[in-house]
Amino acid sequence: MQEVIFSSAAMWFLLGVIAHKFGSIIFGYGKISLFAKDIILNSLELLVSITHDTGYIQQLKYLEMQKAGASEETIKLAKEVDTQTINSWKHSIINKFTTTYPRELRGVVKFHTWSGALEFLTKELKKRYR
User: Fold this and answer.
1) What would you report as the CA-atom Rg of the chain, rounded to the nearest whole angstrom?
2) SS3 of 68, please?
3) What is the extent of the structural domain holding 110?
């Protein structure tokens, strides 16, 4: 009779250990996922700020080119090159987000384009600052 009680107690103990381990893993992944999401949001905020600052600097560049007597065609060409460069940079940044996150956390990256990243950022910031 005592063997049955000991076996039952041992079984409950092992079930408790397994449940604790499973719960710890789930809780750990949840915390890591939230941390990864915060990193993405902070990174996107920084990248948007850099993009705005770059646009401002470009506008100053075009004004200075105009003041220096550059032709409209030269300014237009500079604008096209700048636009292509910025678009390439944006594509590269998004590609880094989607390819460098560990496989287990790729679900946190919920965008595949710059516009998708901006939508994601806007939605998440609205949720946080309501």
Assistant:
1) 26
2) coil
3) 35-128
